[in-house]
Amino acid sequence: MTGSSSPGVPAPSPGTGTGSPPALAELTTMRVGGRPREMYRASTEREIIEAVADIDSRGVPLLVLGGGSNLVVADEGFDGAVLQVASRGVRVESDDACGGVVVVAAAGEPWDALVEQAVAESWSGIEALSGIPGCTGATPVQNVGAYGQEVSQTIWNVRVYDRETRAVRTLANADCAFSYRHSVLKASLGRMADPSPRYVVLSVSFQLRPTDESAPIGYADLARGLGVSPGERVPLAQARDGVLAQRARRGMVLDGADHDTWSCGSFFTNPVLDSEQLVALRERAANRLGPQGPRPPEFAGGQGLTKTSAAWLIEQAGYSRGYGLPGPAALSTKHTLALTNRGSARARDVTALARDVRDGVADRFGVTLVNEPVLVGLSL
Question: Of 91, 269, 299, 364, which sits 20 to 30 A from 358 (CA to CA)?
């Protein structure tokens, strides 16, 4: 599911498909995209299942939508059915000293509202993910992460409707095969001959720690902003406020009056390199920036791999903040990882900018950046 808590236009109820569907530009944070053939809105788990089953039975391509913070749709629209997931609800399934607090959230529950509730209830584990636009059901798909936390660290299980077997399943954390910005849910995108995954998320269960202290602060900039050392803990509310302040400075908190937030957030994932690719990057950087010049950041990528910074590559390749202004699409004036709509951009403008940046980085450093948002009817 691609999701966000972006402004939207009410869609028809499941099974009706009546009226003229709104353009997807009205339902996405990038604010681009034409109209779908059909649109449905599901407010309960049962409505989600019935709508998906009906759409699949008719052989109509399906796009599952939370609100569109991770979605770029073609200007021509989507020749299929859009299902807007609007289910709500958060409940505590268990709360004990040994197992912690297990919280179940409906797929359509706004993500930041869940984080805010967790902080208020003294449930630790997702506070560093404050301010991320989207619906809860979208978070396990790409293993949403920020400021040293990933949802995979707290997900207990994911309840899904399996479109292949036409049955409801519960995927344990291990079943989801989480990795950096990836999961089995994301891996199944497009396997049903449409943009949505095989598994449609119905609800997500999280195992959180009952404490009013944050998890250890694992992100250096956040630690500096909070006035602590990496690895220290702070009160949950203080951690949330610090994260929101960091995101606001980067234009990563939605604000309709600020075109820097008309985006999908980070457009490219941080590259994960094997040893051969890392050596090649170091050599290219030294040749381009000089032997005493800046070096690519290196972080543990797991399984013997190394992660580097997409933002660093973009900036060192010559694409500064605001590149492309006055528009219609340009890099954010606050953060080079965000591609933004300056007010009149169309999908083709966004992809043209993304292609320019991707190809420039590849030419200068030999690393091909990969887009994070789902592209519907588009390619780079």
Answer: 299
Q: Which residue ranges does the chain devote to CATH 3.30.43.10?
A: 24-85
Half-sphere exposure of 82 (CA within 13 A, CB side): 33
- For 165-202, the three-class secondary structure string (H helix, E strand, C coil) is CCEEEEEECHHHCCECCECHHHHCCCCCCCCCCCEEEE
| CATH dotted code for 259-376 | 3.90.78.10
pTM: 0.89
How far is the C-alpha of 159 from the C-alpha of 211, rounded, in Å?
26
Q: How many residues does the chain have?
A: 380
**Domain boundaries 90-249, CATH class:** alpha beta
Q: Retrieve residue 165's tokens.
A: 């077997």
Summarised one tens digit per residue, pLDDT across range 83-139 is 999 999 999 999 987 789 999 999 999 999 999 999 999 999 999 999 999 999 999
Tell me the residue ranges of DSSP E strands in the chain.
36-42, 62-65, 71-73, 78-85, 90-96, 100-106, 123-124, 145-146, 149-150, 155-162, 167-172, 199-210, 263-266, 272-273, 299-302, 305-307, 329-331, 338-341, 374-376
> Quick check: bond before 140 cis, omega within 30?
no
3-state SS assignment for residue 127: helix
- Which residues does the annotation mark as catalytic? 181, 266, 372
**Distance of alpha carbon 269 from alpha carbon 274, whole angstroms:** 16
